[in-house]
Design a protein that fits this description.
Elements lengths: L14 H7 L2 H4 L3 H17 L5 H20 L11 H13 L12 H37 L4 E6 L2 E7 H26 L1 E2 L15 H7 L4 E2 L3 H6 L2 H27 L7 E2 L18 H25 L12 H24 L2 E2 L1 H9 L5 H10 L4 H18 L8 H7 L7 H5 L1 H6 L9 H17 L3
Parallel strand pairs: 3-4
Antiparallel strand pairs: 1-2, 5-6
Helix pairs in contact: 3-4, 3-6, 3-8, 4-5, 6-7, 6-12, 6-19, 7-10, 7-19, 10-11, 10-12, 11-12, 14-15
The structure holds arginine (ARG).
């Protein structure tokens, strides 16, 4: 395949170097965006009388054909081309001759690739936002059924205080909503148009960058041509947001792996989202959850790789920047497939309420409430805390728990104890009294659910 840049070269590119240099293997996925950008560029050139109307019509019609033919599989993207930009331009010229060669007036592959990548990422982010929405909806759906399901809440993975399962799941809704917010914020910043920056310095042609930005759905043209071709902050911001999202999925996956073990037995994952062992017939493994947890590592890696690639680059474009694509494409693919598996895995899990409640009954997780009882009766909290600790130690020594300890025993620790203490430390009570804003109490959980439903409805894609 003859290069479009051959003029000053006497020898062809070495074969190994050619393959090494090419990006068509991965940038081919931006073909739609490349054609869309070229169509608008041709229109701008005609409006500004840089090319004629007729020439523009020919170019636009032929680009339309190329788009359709790739779409229906009639035209294959040639893997021997250097990159997708060269392929589209080469194909155009093959079809309409010299007119096609006019398309690259007042443009460079440097601003072209920056444009294509922004357009591509914008489209992908719309899909990711939709998937995030579905994932939050999955959590909300399960949470709605488990407002009154009591489980131990943990700190240091030690049973800490009783909570509603819905409260636990709503924490993930909050995280994923932040992820959605982070992504749309990054998209907003990304949404300025680099086209017209040309190689790095702008152009002598009377271009109209505002028209191009408007037609392609950007807020405005980027303000500096050098920044236009050398900025990849938007990739980093998005990869950062994707890495954080994966981390959130991974944390719940870790919990699912623990919760579905015999040791916990809090949930059973559906057969459709687990696998068996080749040797141990009893096994039911949480492979999907483990894979999401595992794949989080590579999404982090891509972020670190691009940060490192960019750190030493002088302005403006350098070929190193071609390395931006594989990592971010893989991050997107990984996040999307993870979300596609994650949401139904959550939706289809079976919650073992009894196991959760039994676990909540052990481990003295209502001790804080006992201390609060004394505090409400006038004892300073630190004293109440100490006495409660002594009562817990006494229960452990005598093999009983706070609910079963007789009132006389309580009174030997403090005369403030009365029969109403038992109601205070009943688990349901411990959970439902916590109606502080954002707390695990029923009222607060219902308010959070309402808010999530409202937020879900308000996310615009
Ligand atoms: N394939 C290149 C990339 O992904 C396109 C830009 C090439 N520009 C250049 N000056 N060689 O970065």
């Amino acid at each position: 395949m003859e290069k479009l840049w051959t003029g000053r070269f006497k020898q062809p590119l070495n074969e190994v170097a050619d393959a090494f240099n090419a990006s068509i293997g991965f940038d081919r996925r931006m073909w739609r965006q490349d054609i869309a950008g070229s169509i608008v560029h041709a229109q701008m050139l005609a409006r500004q009388e840089i090319i004629s109307r007729e020439e523009c019509e020919k170019i636009v019609a032929s680009l339309g054909d190329i788009l359709e033919e790739i779409e229906c599989g009639k035209l294959e993207i040639d893997p021997k081309c250097e990159d997708i930009h060269m392929f589209v331009e080469g194909e155009l010229t093959r079809r309409i001759g010299d007119v096609g060669k006019k398309l690259h007036t007042a443009r460079s592959r440097n601003d072209q690739v920056a444009l294509d990548l922004r357009l591509y990422l914008r489209d992908e982010c719309t899909e990711i936002m939709q998937l995030l929405k579905e994932t939050v909806a999955a959590f909300v759906g399960v949470a709605e059924q488990h407002v009154d399901t009591i489980m131990p809440g943990y700190t240091h993975l030690q049973r800490a205080q009783p909570i509603s399962l819905a409260q636990h799941l709503l924490a993930y809704c909050a995280m994923l909503m932040r992820d959605a917010d982070r992504i749309s914020d990054a998209v907003r910043r990304m949404n300025v148009s680099p086209i017209g920056s040309c190689a790095l310095a702008g152009t002598t042609y009377p271009t109209d960058r505002d028209f191009e930005a408007r037609e392609l759905g950007f807020r405005e043209p980027c303000q500096n041509s050098i920044d236009g071709v050398s900025d990849r902050d938007f990739c980093l911001e998005l990869m950062g947001a994707f890495a954080i999202t994966m981390m959130h999925l991974s944390r719940f996956c870790e919990e699912l792996i623990l919760w579905s073990s015999w040791e916990f037995g809090f949930v059973e994952l559906s057969d459709s989202f687990t696998t068996g062992s080749s040797i141990m017939p009893q096994k039911k493994n949480a492979d999907m959850a483990e894979l999401i947890r595992g794949k989080t590592g590579r999404v982090y890696g891509h972020l670190m790789a691009l940060l490192t690639t960019l750190k030493g680059l002088p302005l403006a474009y350098n070929k190193d920047m071609q390395e931006d694509k594989e990592g971010i494409f893989d991050s997107i693919d990984t996040l999307k497939t993870s979300l596609r598996v994650f949401a139904p895995m959550v939706e289809t899990m079976t919650v073992r309420k009894g196991k959760m409640l039994t676990a909540a009954r052990e481990g003295f997780i209502n001790a804080t409430d006992l201390a609060d009882y004394l505090t409400k009766k006038g004892m300073p909290f630190r004293n109440a805390y100490k006495i409660t600790g002594q009562i817990v130690a006494f229960c452990i020594d005598s093999g009983t728990d706070l609910e079963s300890l007789p009132l006389e025993d309580y009174r030997s620790f403090s005369p403030l104890f009365e029969a109403d203490l038992y109601a205070e430390i009943a688990l349901e009570n411990c959970v439902n009294k916590r109606i502080s804003k954002g707390g695990t109490g029923r009222e607060s959980v219902l308010a959070q659910l309402e808010r999530e439903r409202h937020l879900l409805a308000s996310i615009k894609l």
